[in-house]
Design brief:
Two copies of one chain form a homodimer. By secondary structure, the first copy, chain A, is α/β, with parallel strands linked by helices. Chain A is built from seven helices and ten strands. At the A-B interface, helix 5 and helix 6 of A face helix 5 and helix 6 of B. Bound molecules: adenosine-5'-triphosphate (ATP) (2 copies) and magnesium ion (2 copies).
């Protein structure tokens, strides 16, 4: 469902160019559970942004779901593709500050125009699964760092997307809470065939991944199956 | 240098009250290297904010450096206390988006009106120590998550404060980069007697801490010396 071929991503800063990704090839299928690992600044978030159609490569192609080449899509097509098929957990959460937990998690379903009773049912169930029922009416600034992170997780999963891109989903979570979140994702992978692509430094995530892709200085250094 | 007595912190949300901290006593001296640990939502960030004079308790007292009781200080006194004696690494970084790395790190010294040549020398040295010399002129949105975190670390340490409060300082860092940051802090603790108080889930930090304070549901569950 993800076919990345020979992509390069450069950032121009004045006269100086940062080669964030260099010649990256990657193919990801359905039901995968893979972890992208590598040092700080090695290109993990950049790669996730390209796969998630939040950005386009400087050269090379990103082909999604067998049919969409991201650099050829217009804004409307990209928005629909992301809304309906991809769930994204950002490294910096990006919750809407004026909405509470329930409203932030409901938003993707509102955008898909799902019926209100179904939204209410699905949202309260997922908020329960990430342990935030007690805080359902808090807004992001009334939550701890780890609580905000869990809202971001719930929001990414609520639409039951085919592909979930999770950038450091456990960075602010204690061991037990992190494991609970990973169990939830593993269960969606088993029962729905959802593909999960993590960018992480957390050994717990690396421990349950079925495939590990190592990035260093913008290049893929290693790509191995572990289970 | 930190004397916390019987503090409670309540957050009022409409009719419902969150008891974020309940009856917390804590004494911290010079040259300490301690880690506050506990589940997500247990009160760690709230405790750091009270120690760092970013907030005042609902009841009880926080006495800093043997002389300042935080709930009795006016804004000006609190600002000076924080500026000159405390360094703070926030869980969400809080860098200034319009300033680059060098400017963000220099800011606390500018506020102390240190001479420009000395600022330049100290800033470039510390930026080197956190491995960001190559990215010195990038702004926060032109940096990776872990790079931004390292800028926040450098900014907290640049004034050589007596007390550093570090909220999840390694959450977005790979193992090696995280260890390098911890080594830097351990060295400041040994050579300057700087007290470090961490809030963390990272086993690496817990591994080098000399004292571990465990928080659960707003209460101190355990407080033990390990080295
Ligand atoms: N402004 C606020 N209004 C209401 N409740 C709040 C507010 N800030 C924090 N809380 C609540 O206080 C409790 C403690 O929050 P705190 O941020 O101290 O937790 P933490 O231990 O740092 O968690 P984490 O490990 O997830 O960062 C949480 O249950 C949180 O929801
Ligand atoms: N908008 C930008 N302009 C310039 N350079 C950028 C920009 N965004 C990222 N970079 C650079 O591209 C490189 C890769 O960044 P990326 O965010 O992908 O790293 P990462 O592997 O996610 O790191 P971390 O583990 O610290 O989150 C970094 O060196 C970063 O400084
Ligand atoms: Mg990143
Ligand atoms: Mg916190």
């Amino acid at each position: 469902i993800v076919n990345v071929e020979k992509i390069c991503k450069d950032y121009q800063l004045g006269t100086h160019v940062v080669h964030a990704l260099v010649d990256v090839d990657l193919r990801i299928g359905t039901s995968e559970f893979l972890s992208i690992v590598g040092p700080s600044g090695s290109g993990k978030t950049t790669l996730l942004n390209l796969i998630g159609c939040l950005d386009v490569p400087t050269s090379g192609s990103v082909r999604m779901f067998g049919e969409f080449e991201t650099s050829k899509l217009d804004d409307r097509a990209t928005t629909l593709l992301r809304r309906d098929r991809i769930g994204f957990i950002f490294q910096t959460f990006n919750l809407l500050p004026v909405l509470n937990v329930l409203e932030n998690v409901a938003l993707p379903l509102e955008l898909q125009q799902v019926a209100k009773p179904e939204i209410a049912r699905r949202v309260s169930e997922l908020v329960e699964e990430v342990g935030l029922t007690e805080f359902a009416r808090h807004r992001p600034d009334e939550l701890s760092g780890g609580q905000r992170q869990r809202v971001a997780v719930a929001r990414a999963l609520i639409t039951n997307p085919q592909l979930v891109l999770a950038d450091e989903p456990t960075a602010n979570l204690d061991h037990d809470t992190g494991m609970a979140v990973l169990e939830l994702m593993l269960e969606m992978n088993r029962s729905h065939g959802t593909t999960f692509v993590f960018s992480t430094h957390d050994p717990k995530v690396m421990g349950i991944a079925k495939r590990i892709v190592t990035v260093e200085d913008g290049r893929i250094k290693e790509d191995r199956n572990v289970a």
